[in-house]
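ARCHIVE CARD
Drawer: 12
Card no.: 0347
Subject: one protein chain, sequence and derived structure
Cross-reference: see card 0346
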Amino acid sequence: MVTKTALPPRFVWTATDKQLAFLSRTEDDVFFGGAKYGAKTDALLAWKISRRQKYPKSRGLFVRRELAEVVKQGAAWDRMQEFCGSSCKYNQTDHVVYFPNGSVEEFGHCQNENDKMKYQGAQYDDIGFDQLEQFTESQATFISAACRVPESRNVTDSAGNKIQARIRSTGNPGDT
């Protein structure tokens, strides 16, 4: 079964049953694993976009182990622009997407062990790890600590529900 999910105005994305199952989870931390070419990154991007749209002025981080894995042809940065089109603004240098409602999605990386320090003191409403198995435990734990919503932040959806901190990850643990 395939269902169409509306994303920003110019793009309609078709999700598989496995992607829909991932997107429907409500737990604080969810992992979507599977074989190569399973479109896990697309599902993670769709989840991130839906969060940015649902919660105006929200902040998210999409992170890979290496920056090259984010920006290479057809990878997450290109897919995000394909999904959002001209409805968003893109900072090509810093790899940040600005949504019309004031939400921001940052694309980052953590190639070397000490790169995790770039995220010290940061606060994100949600974090998406793409290919989690490529991170060291120390990197993933440190970056995950930046996923928090302080009581003083009043980010809500249209029904007045306050945003909850969430982590979503994809991976290919068997490298198959």
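Annotation on reverse: The first strand starts at residue 3 and ends at 6. The helical segments are 17-24, 40-54, 67-71, 76-84, 137-144.
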